[in-house]
Specification:
- By secondary structure, the protein is of the alpha+beta class.
- It has one domain (about 15-140): 60s Ribosomal Protein L30, Chain: A (2-Layer Sandwich).
- The protein has helices at about 1-15, 65-80, 100-110; strands spanning about 20-25, 40, 45, 90-95, 120-125, 135-140.
- It has a six-stranded mixed beta sheet with strand order 1-2-3-6-4-5, covered by helices on one side.
- Strand 2 (about 40) and strand 3 form a beta hairpin.
- Helix 2 (about 65-80) runs parallel beside helix 3 (about 100-110).
- The longest helix has 18 residues, at about 65-80.
- It is globular and about 45 Å long.
Length: about 140
């Protein structure tokens, strides 16, 4: 019975709400990527995972703190393009190739999420694209006018 209830709730949650899907593709991002930087459905924005590579050169900073800052710059560009702010972020997923970098990541992270911090999951992973040491994906929500 519990399994049936879970399946029913999942079907209700995923059934059509009538909200259109809008692709958010800021001009700063290179064209023809194999994914969308952001997808807005109704009042919710789903941002693709971002790393700290420079948008123009593709290079990663040597400093881990700068890599985290660059990751947040990229997220900020997507949020801004869709009319959202960091204060609208309700969920964040942080992937680190070295969990010992958690404290350094967290000190940069809290500069962007000062108050009303989102729910967060942080995990260590074996590897990320290129020489990235961090990847962050966020979900933002706010009622739009």
């Amino acid at each position: 019975m519990r399994k049936l209830l879970s399946i029913s709730l999942l079907l209700l949650a995923t059934s059509g709400t009538g909200a259109e899907r809008k692709i958010v593709y800021p001009a700063e991002f290179r064209p023809n990527m194999p994914f969308s930087p952001g997808v807005q459905v109704g009042d919710t924005l789903y941002c693709a995972g971002q790393t700290g590579s420079d948008l123009k050169t593709g290079e990663y900073p040597e400093s881990f703190a700068e890599e985290v800052q660059q990751t947040f710059r990229r997220i900020g560009i997507i949020l801004d393009a869709a009319g959202y702010e960091f204060s609208d972020v309700v969920d964040a997923k942080v992937y680190l190739t070295d969990i010992s970098l958690f404290g350094e990541m967290n000190s940069v992270y809290t500069q962007h999420f000062k108050q009303h911090r989102p729910a967060r999951t942080t995990v260590a992973v074996a590897g990320l694209v290129g020489s990235a040491r961090i990847e962050i994906t966020v979900i933002a929500h706010r009622p739009m006018d």
